[in-house]
Design a protein that fits this description.
It comes from Streptomyces roseoviridis. By secondary structure, the protein is of the alpha/beta class. About 35% of the residues lie in helices and about 25% in strands. It has a six-stranded mixed sheet with strand order 6-7-8-3-9-10, sandwiched between helices. The protein is globular.
Length: about 270
């Protein structure tokens, strides 16, 4: 059954894969997140905002890498606090940071198998899970290539493979299309959209076009505060002069996003 459907025969919406309530994070004198409320449901949810808006900080809460100074975080049904709960959650999360470390002499297969070991995939299952992850991102033919020889697009695909090798219930992607050329970006968006059919995906981005092509649900974060929660179509509807019921497209979503930013007076 698709991740978009509920197990409830009455058709009630699926429980969120993760949520934050009143989350505040401070870095010395800077408030990175200011009382943020958000839910992240099965499928792809886009976290849209300019650089410095607090997107990476919010992902760090969802990944359990840090705790909020105040507020609550729940991930995969667990309150994200306490060592035992945190370890349980981490084994069920996949993460692709904006910049991820890798040894350039590792082959793609070795890189993904190493990620499987880190995420405690049983030794007997690692080779199969690695093959499964490489097949998912269409890198089976590149399995024995060195990581240092991959193009930007293939490197991102390898990053997705390592994030998926433990069959995660939640995948976190931080600015995954940055640095890709237009053709690579189109292919990567298709891959992320397909992932949303399998699991819950949260993708942070500052590119409205990514949201138009991938995200059905959108959170807009500006200066550490949540300023919009809704569908991509609802964000498009904020564009000046937009016809009612017009299809979602990149220019309309960009215009709706900019109207929200200007209304808020946020930094871009």
């Amino acid at each position: 059954m698709s991740a978009h459907h509920s197990d409830d025969p009455a058709g009630a919406p699926a429980a969120p894969a993760a949520s934050v309530e009143g989350a505040t994070v401070r870095y010395r004198t800077v408030v990175a997140l200011d009382g943020v409320d958000a839910e992240f449901h099965p499928g792809v949810t886009a976290l849209l905002g300019p650089n410095g808006a607090g997107k990476t900080t919010l992902l760090s809460l969802l990944s359990t890498a840090r705790r909020p100074d105040s507020g609550t975080v729940r991930v995969l049904g667990e309150p994200a606090r306490g060592r035992a709960a945190t370890l349980r959650v981490r084994e069920r999360i996949g993460m692709l940071p904006q910049s991820f470390g890798h040894h350039p002499r590792f082959t793609v297969r070795e890189f993904v198998e190493y990620a499987a070991w880190l995420r405690k995939v049983p030794a007997r299952d690692r080779r199969q899970r690695t093959q499964e992850a490489l097949r998912l991102v269409d890198l089976e033919r590149q399995a024995d290539q060195r990581m240092g020889a991959l193009s930007g697009g293939m490197l991102r695909r390898a990053g997705i493979a390592q994030a998926m090798v433990n069959r995660p219930a939640l995948v976190l992607l931080d600015e995954p299309t940055v640095g890709l050329d237009p053709a690579q970006r189109v292919g990567f968006r298709t891959l992320v959209k397909d992932l949303g059919e399998r699991t819950s995906v949260v993708m942070s981005t500052h590119l409205a076009e990514d949201v138009a092509q991938i995200g059905t649900r959108v959170h807009v974060l500006l200066d550490g505060r949540m300023r919009f929660t809704g569908t991509a179509a609802e964000l498009c509807d904020r564009a000046p002069g937009r016809a009612a019921g017009a299809p979602v497209d990149g220019p309309s979503l960009e215009a709706g996003y900019l109207a929200l930013v200007q209304q808020d007076g946020a930094r871009v």
